[in-house]
Amino acid sequence: MKIGIIGTNFVSDAMVEASLLVNEFELTVVCSRNIDNAKAFAEKHNIANYTDNHEDFLDYDLDAVYIAVPNVLHKDLTIYFLNNKIPVFCEKPMASNYDEVKEMIDASVQNNTLLMEGIVPIYTDAIQVIKDNLSEIGQVRSAIMAMNQYSSRYDAYREGQVLNAFKPELSNGSTMDIGLYPLSVSIALFGKPESISASAFLLSSKVDGKGTIVLHYCDKDIIVTHSKISNQVLIPEIQGEDGVIQMSHVSLLNEVSITKNKAEKEVLYSDFETPSMYFEFKALAKALKAKNIEAFPGAHQLSLDIHEVLTEARRQTNVVYPADKK
After folding, report:
1. Which pTM was predicted?
2. Which domain CATH number covers 310?
3. What is the mean pLDDT of residues 231-237?
4. Is the separation of the CB atoms in 95 and 71 below 8 Å?
């Protein structure tokens, strides 16, 4: 299956590594707005073709397009390819807000063409292990889903240089980047909450550097904490009446363990070797072969639920993007 790549950052490097392991993809062409970046990426990964115009992709009879560009560009590129009947694997977050995601999914349905959002943990084997073992810890009463990861770009910000990671015009910030991971795992496991309460620390650039989203359910609360300006030692965990499930890292889910009341900790799943995006590309290959329009049953609705919460969290914390005003 022939794949076109739009975007040449570190995420695209990880995509190449993972796609090669699946052994079903041919990396055919790469696109960057900077032709020199496109050429360098193509040479680095032995890709025969490169361009600075995504419309050139129509000449290559592609089976799918992988999009890893600034968030604000996701919607228009995705709909362009869906309207040309080319399946799209779009990096997270799928778009700037709920309305854009809805428009993209509508285009997927109308064109009967696959649209997949690249959120690493929801495709892993580990997420199913957690689902299968939730009953073992009894009634879940609370969870702490934390991802606090000091951004490599924050040093430059502190010195007065605002890089892409902290620009509202690109639909960036902690909620949309780091926060999406623990939020996605929470909603994948427990469904859309009945309501949310969100708080955030806004940087001078007007995006959030850190924040908290509390997901309220009738029988439990899930605390989602996220940050691009501090690190963590805290391990994400789900607390039930009969025990606790812990995760090594909520965006990767390399290891899952369970500690039942009055029992020793037991490792349920451990895999620190498989590249993080491998499971996504395995799901992509399966969906393409089956000619499905979503990566798994309910995937589109999951994206809608996630982005409804993200959009509401930004509303509550006054993080506004230019894309919200269109």
Report:
1. 0.95
2. 3.30.360.10
3. 93
4. yes
